Amino acid sequence: MTRPHQSPYAGHDDGELAILLEQGCELAFTEIYQRYWKNLHDFAERQLREQWPAKDCVQEVFVALWRNRSERRIACLEGYLLQAVRFQACKAIQSRKSARSFYQYARYTAPASYFKDHVSLKEMQSGFDKVLAGLPEKQRAIFTMHREGQVTYKQIAEKLGIFVKTVEQKMSLSLKSLREYAEATR
Question: Taken in order 165, 168, 170, 176, is the CA torsion positive or negative?
């Protein structure tokens, strides 16, 4: 299947793309995204049985892939991405079981339209980083512990000596700020 506007990296194999990604090549990232997004979405949708949480899950994986590009050597790109989506799907299922809304949990991630409209991932990430930097210190710390450190709300509450409800409230405020930024840049 030929895509309109084929990227200059369409003929590269996954190993080459992984190396280029590690070096920060945005076009290689775009090729990886175009190459794997649909299959990863279909996989996530089979796991979650819902379209929007699946999209959010896959988008989260791609945001993390770009954010952590220089920290990992990826030997098998497809396997890595499938495993990352499987992990995100498990997190989504777990969050449902603990009565947190998956939509609220993952809505801050950018929709696929950001990439289709050629808005730079770098610009999007920079905007999110600015929003996060503008949050009150404790709220930013809670968000960072949960999203990047993968710490549960209960663990955060224990570590900071606060109520779980306070953690939930601070996360909700953080996600609202990120959502507002995403909506304003559409």
Answer: negative
- Domain 9-99: state its class: mainly alpha
Both tokens assigned to 138: 């404790």
> What is the full DSSP assignment across 14-69?
HHHHHHHHHTT-HHHHHHHHHHHHHHHHHHHHHHHS-HHHHHHHHHHHHHHHHHTT
Q: Which pLDDT band, with edges at 50, 70 and 90, does 164 fall under? A: confident
Contact indicator for 175, 146 with CB cutoff of 8 Å:
no
> Is this structure's pTM higher than 0.70?
no
When pLDDT is averaged across residues 28-47 and rounded to a whole number, the result is: 91
The C-alpha R_g of the chain, in whole angstroms, comes to 17
Q: Is the separation of the CB atoms in 96 and 146 below 8 Å?
A: no
What residues does CATH 1.10.1740.10 cover in the chain? 9-99
Tokens of 177: 């700020």
Which of 96, 14, 102, 100 minimizes the C-alpha distance to 57?
102
Q: What is the pLDDT of residue 37?
A: 92
The CATH number of the domain covering residues in 120-186:
1.10.10.10
**Of 19-23, 52-56, 81-85, 135-139, which gets the smallest average pLDDT?**
52-56
